Amino acid sequence: MAVISSGRRGDQVMLTSKLYEFEEPLCIQFHYRLQESKPGTSGSLSVYLLSKQRVPVRLRLEEYDTVFAGGWRKGCVYIPSGTYHVMFVATLGLPYHSDIYLDNIVRGRVHRCHYQTIVKPTGIFLLINSA
Hints:
The chain is mainly β. It has strands at 2-3, 12-16, 20-22, 26-34, 44-50, 56-59, 62-68, 72-79, 82-91, 100-108.
């Protein structure tokens, strides 16, 4: 996924998986790059689990390896057992200076990511997609 920053600061692009049953806990590992041409201009990458009812729970993105060629990083998120959509959300920073890239998404061993207790949110949540 490549998000080219020709939009407005705060614009978002979402990549959402199909509904998947995770029979046991695992990690999702991936490469990502947050372009920052000037300090403080970069965007952000967040990862969420969506329940069948599409209630979002934000996961802690962990960088588990050093930065390598071209500014790419290796990251992972812990996925507990259950049935979820996995959603990557790229949020733009400064226009034309904050491209975001995501590549090589794979399932991995749990030891790569720290176990996280998932606290289910309460209340009403709306996913709003601004056009």
